[in-house]
Amino acid sequence: MRFSAVFLSSLFLSAPSAFAVMPLKIPRGIASIGASAVQCLTAKKMEVHGHRGMNGYPDNTIASFKAAFDAGVDVVELDLQVTDDNHLLVAHDAVPNVGTERCGVDHKSLLKAALRDLDFTTEQKVRCGIKKFDEEKLEPIPELKQVFAEFKDRKTAAGKPARLNIEVKYFMDQIQFYPPENEYIDLIIKVIRESGWATDRFFVQSFNVEFLMKFKAKAPDIEVVPLVGDARAAEKTALELGSKKVTPGFWHVNPELVFNMQKQGIKVIVWTPNLEGEIRQVIESGADGIITDYPELFYKIRDELCGI
Predict the structure, then answer these.
(1) Which of 36, 48, 117, 305 suits 95 as a labelling partner, its CA being 20 to 30 A distant?
(2) CB of 1 within 8 A of CB of 34?
(3) Burial letters for 208-232: b for 16+ Cβ neighbours within 10 Å, e otherwise?
(4) Averaged pLDDT, 249-256
(5) Which residues is 240 bridged to in the sheet?
C-alpha cells in the first residue's frame, strides 16, 4: 500500500495548486488489501527452515527431517553433539534428558547421562521420543553423515535440492561435552567433505562467533552464519564476521532492522517464531527467511495473505 500512497501523492503534487491542498485519504479496505499484498509477496519469497525438523516428531531425527521436507520446507535446521569416540551426532542437547525423560536405552531412561559419555555402540541403541523415552514414536539419534546420505538426492517441494542449516554448539561453560576446539572443527569439516554435498546446500551457524571465525579460517569455502539472540546486535555481528547471512531471534525483529541489514547485502533468517502472531511479525518485518517448528502454520498464514 505504501507504493499506492506514493503514486497517488505524486498525482496530487503534479495537479493544479487548487487540488494540492486536498488531504489524501486512502480507503481502509484498499489499505488492508495493499498491506496483505505486500506481505503475501514477502512470505512467498521467504526461505522456510524446519527447526529440528518439525513439530510432531522426535526432534533432530531422520523422521522429523523427512516430515519437514514433506511439509514443504526449503531447509532443515539441525544441531550437533559428539560421542566419546568422536562420532558426530545430530542432537540438540549434550544431555538429552535435561528437563524431560526423552531418551532411553532398552526401555531404560538415560537419566542425566551425556552423549559425550557414551561410545558409539551404546549410542546406536538410544531411542528418543517427543517428550518421553517410552512413547510410540521412538527414533534413533542419527549421525550427521547419515543425514547427508539420506537427503543427498532429496528435492524440495519447489524442485530444488534439499538443504541443511547446521548449528554447532560450543559454549565455554560446556566444553567438557566436546572435543578440543580445533579437533571439533576438523571433525565437522571432515564429515562435510566426505558427504560430497555442494557447499551451496548448507551453512554452519553458531552463537560462538570466535568458533565460526576459526572454522572459516580452516574452510573458507563453507558459509558460516552468526546465530544471534538479540536482533539489535545482528547487523554488527554479521559485519564483524563478514557474513552475508544472519539468524537472529524474533523478539526484536522489525522492518527497520531488517531493511538496514538487507541494504548491506545481509539476508535475515529469523528464529524461532512458533505462534501465529510471532510468525506474522516476522513476515511483516520483511525478513528473508524463517526458522520454525510449525512450517505448516507458516504456509497457512501465507495462503491467507495471498487469498488462497
Answers:
(1) 48
(2) yes
(3) bbebbebbbeebeebbbbbbbeebe
(4) 98
(5) none
Residue whose C-alpha is closest to residue 170's, from 129, 205, 211: 211
What whole-number distance in Å separates Cα of residue 46 and Cα of residue 138? 32
Strands 103-105 and 126-128: antiparallel
The residue among 188, 176, 180 whose CA lies nearest residue 215 is 188
Cβ atoms of 148 and 195 within 8 Å: the answer is yes
Grid cell for residue 164: 541443511
* CA–CA distance, 135 with 303 (Å, rounded to integer): 34
- Which long-range CB contacts under 8 A does 117-120 form with residues at least 24 apart? 117/84, 118/83, 118/84, 119/83, 119/84, 119/85, 120/83, 120/84, 120/85, 120/87
Q: Which domains does the chain have, with CATH numbers?
A: 37-93+144-305 (3.20.20.190)
How far apart are alpha carbons 207 and 154 in whole angstroms?
28
Cα 151 to Cα 52: distance, rounded to the nearest angstrom = 15
Backbone φ, ψ for residue 282 (5° rounding)? -65, -40
- pTM of this prediction? 0.89
First to last CA, the chain: 20
Residue 28 reports pLDDT greater than 90: no
Residue 230 CB-half CA count within 13 A: 3
